[in-house]
Write a structure and sequence with these properties.
heterodimer; A: alpha/beta; FAD/NAD(P)-binding domain; 4-stranded parallel beta sheet; 21 strands; 23% helix; B: alpha/beta; D-Amino Acid Oxidase, Chain A, domain 2; 5-stranded antiparallel beta sheet; 18 strands; 26% strand; globular; FAD/NAD(P)-binding domain-containing protein (chain A); FAD/NAD-bd_sf (chain A); oxidoreductase activity (chain A); BFD-like_2Fe2S-bd_dom_sf (chain A); oxidoreductase (chain A)
């Protein structure tokens, strides 16, 4: 090759803020243990955790279903950092043992060499705090991001006061900022029992727990004021200000999926879970998944979701306002005021959640599909499990200003073009391509291309 | 039976025009229709350098009705310039359209701000193109597919083409993973896979595959004309309100067999955010919620190959060289004519024949600096 196309990615640098032999994502028990073990074996280890979150993310229910039941103290970053460290004493131990710890830091992307990303010189992890995004290099990664909540789209589920078990646990034990008083708990398994025990342990009033799958209605206009459930054919009601959906959680597989690790459908481990061996090693060399990110316990999710999705008006995707009926009819979004194909979903052949997302917008919203992923998947998987809907960076919503702050190679800027850099492409195609034409596609500056 | 290999916009549009006239068509698609570059691009419908430009402009306003499903097409484009160099290049590209009788208007900073409240003091001005437009790529791809079926055409998804059988200088059957399909004509419109499909027929179709990427933000209240771009970015505000923009370094790759590699993102996506914030400095708080990549192909001069071969005489080869979505209504109509009558009666395609690459050196990719790096 004479010299590489200057407008291509070949030869461009991606400035790194630092490099580590081992990065660990998620500072729960599994992550802290992995980071300490890495440091003990002489690795240069970085342990990152997204908590305390950018306050804007609580409202988007990222990463958990927080349901607007965290108090205003979560806006005070320094105070929240103190609480996180207090709630996880292992963090200080890890620091003392030489682990570099970064809390309030989200892992939003990971970039490794592959068939369509040959130009990446080293493995890179994308990190961000509230102000800026940056990259660090890594050789090995342990993903210990835990599990997230499964929302059940019963009527009223989008009201402030409806939370998931993980959101409730984080509000109670991690942030110490739970603002509810009287709660109802949904679920019959260990998750619901733990939520009930935690609630009682902190002196909260537990109005009731609905253990067996039953039709539900969450009551309230501006926020939750009660729960109605069906029992022996009759509706019963109880007053509460919070409903904790503690039926099931699902492994957070965003990072393994982004990296290209094999992920399989495994209902015994919470649904889609990374394929790992006994040591937690994924299909990708040097990438391990530990803790609940590698699999959660089996639960009654399917029965509950079936009940919730049976109603046509069930609001499956809250961000984009897509109902179960819209999905079944494959109806275009409301702003188009158009109908779907006559046969609805059946028109598509084997259902694919990404395809249905693009047609109906279910899962396309600002919560990045976290609240509806499992519902849409259940709805598409009547005959056999639909494939995993893809995850893409940024794995957490990042303000333009934060992502834009990532340091950039000056050669990348100097050679930036809107579309390739082929001068003849932009000149009349009814005339022969002229030699040495000027490129009039989108360029940033009139400066010469850096060779 | 006309068999179309490739369920992207080019193949689907060709099938649509043929089926609409009552011809029997089968589209063979290795995955899902519109799944690759056709369904994941910037959605631009503004290509004044193409001989198909006039037809592109004529057809888009009718496509919703023709296809019976919304494409989300909207007319007009606004170009933003952050310096005089950008403005100068924008005018050069504008003149390609105004020379053909289309209208464009100067926008000073205030006029630009009226149309695009997101721009800042750093914008020197812009141009309003009273032509062109943008549409939703995925919805349009699906609309073509459903329209083909409504007109009696057949679409085989998840079906891979293994070869084209010829006899006496004509293609007689297309061999697929779902069996053989007898044919009277074949259109190869398989994007970056077109070269490998044409090669056994004795034709070298020079093309290099590449990966490109885009980002999208959370929705914002829609502005009057969402087709706004500039500053080294292409893209638009979607009808829902999201900002979807691409640009920047591409990556030359190689294909490995009949699959298309998963198009990942790279830190270039942060460069997209940087350029977007430079163009719209008031939107720093707006969140990026997703990104994606796509695999496209380019010919050595970056221009389409739209050609009916001499041997086998009933095979048409089509590559749009990385710019296929917006032109697709017109391209499909032109290709349908190539299949049926051997020539296009509404556009001069004489410069888009495969034969222009007859003397191309074998190592053309290396010479152009387009080699893929090793994996």
């Amino acid at each position: 090759m004479t010299h590489a196309d200057p407008t291509s990615i070949a030869g461009k640098r991606f400035p790194l803020r630092d490099s580590f032999t081992h990065v660990v994502i998620g500072a729960g028990e599994a992550g802290i243990a992995a980071a300490r073990a890495a440091a003990a074996s002489g690795e240069r280890a970085l342990l990152v955790d997204e908590h305390p979150l950018d306050p804007g993310l609580f409202g988007l229910d990222i990463p958990y279903l927080f349901g607007g039941r965290l108090d205003a103290s979560t806006r005070q970053a320094a105070r929240m950092e103190e609480r996180i460290v207090a709630a996880r004493p292992g963090l200080l131990q890890a620091m003392e043992e030489g682990v570099e710890v970064a809390i309030g830091t989200a892992a939003w992307g990971a970039f490794v060499k592959g068939p369509s990303s040959r130009a990446l010189p080293v493995r890179m992890l994308g990190l961000a705090d509230r102000d800026a995004a940056w990259l660090v290099g890594f050789e090995r990664m342990t993903i210990a991001t835990g599990a997230r909540d499964v929302a059940l789209p019963f009527p009223g589920w989008t009201l402030p006061g409806v939370m998931g078990a993980q959101g409730f646990d984080a509000a109670l034990r991690l942030y110490g900022a739970f603002s509810g008083r009287r709660i109802a708990i949904i679920g019959g398994g260990a998750l619901a029992q733990q939520a009930e025990a935690a609630a009682r342990g902190t002196g909260l009033d537990v109005a009731l727990r609905v253990a067996a799958p039953a039709p539900l209605r969450i009551l309230g206009r501006e926020e939750v004021t009660g729960l109605a459930w069906q029992q022996d054919g009759a509706w019963r009601e109880a007053a509460c200000d919070t409903v904790v959906l503690a039926v099931d959680t699902v492994p957070m597989v965003e990072l393994p999926d982004l990296l290209g690790c094999a992920i399989g459908w495994d209902p015994a481990h919470g649904g889609f879970a990374p394929v790992v061996d006994a040591q937690g090693r994924s299909s990708l060399d040097g990438i391990a998944v530990r803790g609940e990110a590698a699999g959660t316990a089996a639960a009654q999710r399917a029965a509950w979701l079936d009940l919730a999705l049976a109603a046509d008006e069930a609001l499956v995707c809250a961000c984009e306002e897509v109902s179960a009926a819209d999905l079944r009819a494959l109806r275009p979004p409301r702003y188009l005021a158009a109908e779907g194909p006559e046969a609805g979903l059946a028109r598509l052949g084997p259902p694919n959640q990404d395809q249905v997302k693009r047609l109906t917008r279910a899962g396309m919203g600002a919560c990045q599909g976290r609240r509806c992923r499992e519902s849409v998947h259940a709805l598409l998987s009547r005959e056999r499990p639909a494939p995993l809907a893809s995850h893409r960076a940024p794995l957490r919503p990042l303000p333009l200003s934060v992502l834009a702050a990532l340091e950039e190679d000056p050669a990348l800027r100097a050679n930036w073009t809107g579309w390739f850099g082929i001068a003849a492409q932009w000149l009349p195609h009814w005339e022969p391509a002229p030699p040495d034409a000027e490129y009039i596609g989108g360029r940033l500056s009139g400066g010469d291309v850096v060779k | 039976m006309i068999v179309i290999i490739g369920g992207g916009v080019t193949g689907l549009s060709t099938a649509f025009w043929l089926a609409r006239e009552g011809h029997a068509v089968t589209v063979v698609e290795k995955g899902i229709v519109g799944w690759e570059a056709s369904g994941r691009n910037g959605g631009g419908c503004t290509h004044p350098y193409s001989p198909l430009f006039r037809e592109e402009q004529r057809l888009w306003p009718m496509m919703d009705d023709l296809l019976g499903h919304p494409t989300e097409w909207r007319p007009n484009r606004i170009k933003v310039a952050l310096d005089e160099g950008q403005l100068d290049r924008l005018w050069k590209s504008t003149r390609l359209a105004t020379d053909q009788g289309f209208a464009a208007e100067v926008l000073d900073r205030a006029a630009l701000r009226d149309l695009v409240p997101w721009v800042g003091e750093n914008a020197v001005g812009g141009i309003l193109w009273k032509y062109g437009g943008h549409a939703n790529p995925q919805r349009t791809s699906q609309a073509y597919a459903w329209a083909v079926e409504r007109h009696g055409g057949r679409i085989l998804q998840h079906t891979t083409v293994r070869g084209i059988r010829t006899r006496g200088g004509r293609a007689v059957a297309v061999e697929t993973s779902a069996g053989e399909i007898g044919c009277d004509a074949v259109v190869i419109a398989a994007g970056p896979h077109t070269a490998a499909l044409a090669q056994p027929l004795g034709h070298r179709v020079p093309m290099a595959p590449a990966r490109v990427e885009m980002i999208v933000t959370e929705p914002l209240p829609p502005i009057a004309m969402g087709g706004v771009d500039g500053n080294g970015l292409y893209g638009r505000q979607t009808l829902r309100g999201n900002l979807a923009y691409g640009g920047g370094p591409h990556e030359w790759i190689d294909l490995d067999g009949e699959a298309t590699p998963r198009p990942v993102n790279t830190p270039v996506m942060a460069g997209l955010a940087r350029r977007l914030q430079e163009m719209f400095p008031r939107l720093g708080h707006v969140r990026v919620i997703r990104s994606w990549g796509g695999i496209v192909e380019n010919t050595p001069d970056g221009r389409p190959i739209l050609d009916r071969l001499e041997d086998p005489a009933n095979v048409v080869v089509a590559s749009m060289s990385s710019v296929g979505f917006g032109l697709s209504p017109a391209t499909g109509r032109a290709l349908a004519q190539l299949v049926l009558q051997g020539r296009c009666d509404f556009a001069d395609l004489s410069q888009l024949k495969l034969s222009r690459f007859g003397n191309l050196p074998l190592d053309w990719r290396s010479r152009q600096g387009w080699d893929a790096l090793p994996v």
